[in-house]
Design goal:
By secondary structure, this protein is mainly α. It is built from 1 helix and no strands. The protein has one domain.
Length: 29
């Protein structure tokens, strides 16, 4: 269960990074 929680937390971090990257791209455009 702890491992699953870590995986979900890691996925949220990745999603957050992706969202920031997308926002940066839209700002440049």
């Amino acid at each position: 269960m702890i491992l699953a929680g870590r995986v979900i937390a890691a996925k949220k971090q990745v999603d957050k990074c992706e969202n920031i990257r997308i926002h940066d791209v839209t700002k440049i455009l």
